[in-house]
Amino acid sequence: MEFALSEEQEILSESVRKMLEDNIDIDLLRNHSKGDDVIRGNIRQLVVEMGLPGILIPEEFGGSGLGVLEAALIAEEFGRYAVPTPWIGNSVMAPIALLYEKGNSLSEKWLPLIASGEITACVSLTEAVGKRSNAGLSSKDSKVTGTAIFGLDGELNPRIIITVLEDNLILIDTEKPGVTISEIPTIDSTRPVVEVVFDSVDFEIIPGGKDAIQKTIGVGRVLLAADILGASANMISNAVEYSLERKQFNRVIGSFQAVKHMCAEMAADLEPCKSLLWYAAYAQDNIREEAALLSCHVKAHLSEVGQDTARTSTQVFGGMGFTDLLGMHYWFKRIGLSRQILGGPEKVRQEAARLQGFLS
Description:
This protein is α+β, with helices and mostly antiparallel strands. 55% of the residues lie in helices and 15% in strands. The protein contains twelve helices and ten strands. The strands form three sheets. Strands 1-4-5-8 form a four-stranded mixed β-sheet. The two termini are 38 Å apart.
């Protein structure tokens, strides 16, 4: 058995990388960070033209019908280029939630619209990861009230919100009265998160209960890990390139043993993460009994490796590494936010221990 990507998967990854290389650069990220909404729309259109919003959606609903592994390969490239457009929530977590139980009316209604790019979906599952006391959502008379925070992909006027109410995923149409969406400032300007306030709003329950919640969160964690992998690989690549150009004492700094060791250790730590990510992503579709545990492991491990890589690669740049002139902070901050979304390393390791029976 060959444990490697197929030719089709490699072509998909290379095609997405080429598209992003041609359209994303540091100047675009700078302008985006200043609030240029035109950039958001333009990048979104490129993603739609490649058919990426429908990557997980079955062909009968206008998608490609591919798997979580293919989605993870795309997420890795999005992390590599710090792509400022909806992806993990809209194109991955929302379809996973809607497809958990086949044949439901919600999937038939909304999946074709997501696949075509006609609408975006915002996903906010923070309450299922770490419930806040005296907060979250409540229902009365079949209407939902409360606040959902850290919603993914809510920056482009999402048509639907998927969030959690008690032990169920619920879907809210934002055209219903009583929905207010606002961006939450975070360290990462490339990937906004939103707060959604509901004031007695109609909702629909997505079939699947607790299992659908766990599946959606697990896949989201795998995709965040893939994003961290791509961002970390970019930081290493740029650090190595800089070390071969920057001179001190009439020598490139890459010739100094200390810098060589820093770069080599980053590469050695990151390379094995690829196989862990591929296996975790594959398990989401094919090894159900291992899927939840592997999503915890890959999220926790890459969060730690990504943090170390971001810090060490910035050190290679010296004082320049913290300036906007080089722009490495976009990836540094993206890794930092990805580390915390859907649970930081301590939280997901605790979940992994519970899944294995080590905690009650």
